[in-house]
From TrEMBL:
One of its GO terms (cellular component) is plasma membrane. One of its GO terms (biological process) is transmembrane transport. This is Protein lplB. InterPro entries: MetI-like, MetI-like_sf. Belongs to the binding-protein-dependent transport system permease family. Gene3D superfamilies: MetI-like (1.10.3720.10). It comes from Paenibacillus donghaensis.
Length: 326
C-alpha cells in the first residue's frame, strides 16, 4: 500500500526520466554522440576485414584436392583427408616436437633475460654508461638473421671459432667441439642466438613500464630501510607485472608461430631431426611440393591451436591474477 502511494506521488515526467532506455536506443544515442569516432574507425574495420578475415575463405582449400587450373566449384572435395595424413606423418610429429621445444625454451629465456636486463639498466646510476649499454644491446636487433646466423656459425666453428678457442685455452675441453653438427645442441644454439639478438630490444618495453612506477614508492621504501634488492622485489617487479602478463599471453598465443628463418639458416643436414619446425615443414612439404591443400591444412592446425592456447592462458590469468588480455 505504501509502495503504491509512493509511486503515485512521483511526477509522471520524473518516471519517464528514470525509465531505462532500450538497448537499441542507447546504441543509436551513443552512435550519434560519437559519430566522428565511428567514422574514423570505419577505414580500419574495412582494412581488417579485407586483409585479415576475407583471406580465411582460402581455408576451404584444406578440404579440397586443390588444382590451380580449376574453378572453385570444379575442385574435388576430400573432407578431412589432409588432416588425417597430417597426424599420421612422422615428419609432422617431429616438426611439432621441435617447434614446441624451441618455443618453450624461447618463451622462458625471452622473458627472464629482458626483464633482468631492464632491471639492471634501471639500477645503473652512471647515465653515460647506461645509454651506452642500451645502444649496444639494441644493435643486434637490426642485424638480419642471414648475417646473425653467419656470426653465430663462425663463433661456434671448430676451426678458429672463438668459443672453442676460449674453452681450449682455459682447459675446459681437449679437442674442439663441432657445435653445428650436434643435433642435441641445436635447440640451445637457436635459443641463445635469439637471446643475444633480441634481449636489448625486448627490454625497451620493460624499461618503459619501470619508468611509470612512482618515485615516491622507492623513497618511502628507502626511508623504511629497504635495500635495493628489496625495492626491486617489492616495487619494481609488482609494478611491471601487468606488462609481463600481457606480453606472456601474447607470446603463448604465438607459441607455434616461431617462423623458420633461424632454423633454416642455422640448420644443416646433420641436425635436420632437431631443426625441422612447423613453418619449415609447411614450406617444404606444402608449397615446395605444390601441395597447396596440405600446406593450408598445416596452417589451419597452427591457427586453431594458437587460438586455443590464447584463450586458455588468458582464462588462467583472469582467474588467478584478475588480469586479462581479452
Amino acid at each position: 500500500m505504501k509502495a503504491e502511494t509512493a509511486t503515485a506521488q512521483i511526477p509522471p515526467d520524473t518516471r519517464m526520466r528514470n525509465k531505462k532506455p532500450a538497448s537499441g536506443g542507447r546504441f543509436w544515442r551513443s552512435f550519434k554522440n560519437q559519430k566522428y569516432l565511428w567514422m574514423m574507425s570505419i577505414p580500419f574495420v574495412i582494412w581488417a576485414f579485407v586483409f585479415s578475415y576475407l583471406p580465411l575463405w582460402g581455408w576451404t582449400m584444406a578440404f579440397q584436392k586443390y588444382k590451380p587450373a580449376r574453378g572453385f566449384f570444379e575442385q574435388e572435395w576430400v573432407g578431412f583427408e589432409h588432416f588425417k595424413i597430417l597426424f599420421t606423418d612422422s615428419q609432422f610429429l617431429l616438426a611439432l616436437r621441435n617447434t614446441l621445444a624451441m618455443s618453450g625454451m624461447g618463451l622462458i629465456a625471452g622473458f627472464i633475460f629482458p626483464i633482468t636486463f631492464a632491471i639492471l639498466l634501471n639500477e645503473l646510476r652512471l647515465g653515460f654508461f647506461k645509454r651506452f649499454a642500451q645502444t649496444v644491446s639494441y644493435l643486434p636487433h637490426f642485424v638480419s638473421w642471414v648475417v646473425a646466423a653467419g656470426i653465430v656459425t663462425k663463433m661456434l666453428s671448430s676451426e678458429n671459432g672463438l668459443v672453442n678457442d676460449v674453452m681450449l685455452a682455459i682447459g675446459f675441453i681437449d679437442t674442439p667441439i663441432q657445435f653445428m653438427a650436434q643435433g642435441h645442441l641445436f635447440w640451445g644454439i637457436v635459443t641463445l642466438s635469439d637471446v643475444w639478438k633480441e634481449t636489448g630490444w625486448n627490454a625497451i618495453i620493460y624499461l618503459a613500464a619501470i619508468s611509470g612506477i612512482g618515485p615516491e614508492l622507492y623513497e618511502a621504501a628507502r626511508v623504511d630501510g629497504a635495500s635495493r634488492l628489496r625495492q626491486v622485489w617489492h616495487i619494481t617487479l609488482p609494478g611491471i607485472r601487468p606488462t609481463i602478463t600481457v606480453l606472456l599471453i601474447m607470446s603463448v598465443g604465438n607459441l607455434l608461430n616461431i617462423g623458420f628463418e633461424k632454423q633454416f639458416l642455422l640448420g644443416n643436414n646433420l641436425v635436420t631431426d632437431y631443426s625441422q619446425v612447423l613453418d619449415l615443414y609447411s614450406l617444404k612439404y606444402g608449397l615446395g611440393m605444390a601441395r597447396y591443400s596440405y600446406g593450408t591444412a598445416i596452417n589451419i592446425f597452427n591457427s586453431v591451436i594458437s587460438v586455443i592456447l590464447l584463450f586458455t592462458i588468458n582464462g588462467i590469468f583472469k582467474r588467478t591474477t584478475k588480469e586479462s588480455l581479452l
